[in-house]
Specification:
41% of the residues lie in helices and 17% in strands. The chain is α/β, with parallel strands linked by helices and 241 residues long. The protein has a five-stranded mixed sheet with strand order 3-2-1-4-5, sandwiched between helices. Helix 4 packs across helix 5, helix 5 crosses helix 6 and helix 7 packs across helix 8. The radius of gyration is 26 Å and the shape is elongated. One of its GO terms (biological process) is DNA integration. InterPro entries: Integrase_cat-core (IPR001584), RNaseH-like_sf (IPR012337), RNaseH_sf (IPR036397). GO terms for molecular function: nucleic acid binding.
């Protein structure tokens, strides 16, 4: 339009005519349309309604970490649980990724944090195997102490859609936070990591993450109340780190 005007021509309502043409041109509309944003669904009920800590939680495995056993190095993993309501985390160490090892980690978690109503996780093969064993345990409650224990806890697994790891962002983000804390600690002990030391580091990393404020609105106000942290909700203390 500026080129036409600089050439000495004046067309009445030129801007309106050009805008009208662009609106009707399919190619122009495709080139000029804004980028679509991802439409987010409402948060699930278990993330918005009050419930005891770790009643509803997500779970995932991260690692591996190399630990030294005598002259050999072994792979170890972290099993993370994150509470949907309090946003607290709990981490257990796994010796391997077998279903039996995973169930042992789950038993430790339930023994320390209390009964769990629902656990959501990705479609890991070890998780699927554990779900099958838990289903068998619930249908045959007389098959042993482990079956009776799991049936009594009434713990349900909800698996995400296959190949949809983005649906587990609520626990993937917590894994990233724990790993950031853990990497700084592991950098101080290169080549000297043992199972006992790794388990201690995992617990300490979880304690530090649970000391983070859940909101930052009043951090810079000296007259405001103490920021709420997951530790307030699960231990009634400011910090355990």
């Amino acid at each position: 339009m500026n080129e036409i005007r600089s050439s000495g021509y004046w067309i009445p309502k030129l801007s309106q005519r050009v805008s009208s043409y662009i609106r009707q041109c399919v190619f122009c509309r495709k080139q000029r349309r804004p980028v679509e944003g991802q439409k987010m669904r409402d948060l699930p009920t278990e993330r918005t309604e009050q419930s005891p800590p770790f009643t509803y939680c997500g779970m995932d495995v991260f690692g591996p970490f190399l630990t030294k056993q005598a002259r050999k190095k072994q792979k170890r993993y972290g099993l993370l649980f994150t509470c949907f309501y309090s946003r607290a985390v709990h981490v257990e160490m796994l010796e391997d990724l077998s279903t039996d090892t995973f169930i042992n980690g789950l038993r430790c978690f339930i023994a320390l944090r209390g009964s769990v109503r629902q656990i959501k996780c990705d479609q890991g093969t070890n998780f699927i195997g554990a779900k099958n064993e838990l289903n068998a345990a619930q249908s045959e409650m007389d098959t042993g102490k482990l079956s009776a224990f799991l049936a009594e806890k009434q713990c349900d697994f909800v698996l995400n859609t296959p190949h949809a790891s983005h649906a587990g962002g609520v626990w993937e983000r917590q894994i990233r936070t724990v790993k950031n804390v853990l990497n700084a600690t592991l950098a101080l002990t290169p080549g000297r990591l043992t199972d006992s030391l790794l388990r201690t580091f995992l617990y300490e990393a979880a304690a530090i993450v649970n000391s983070r404020p859940l909101t930052t609105d009043n951090l810079n106000d000296p007259n405001s109340l103490e920021p709420l942290t997951p530790n307030h909700l699960i231990t009634m203390k400011t910090s355990s780190a």
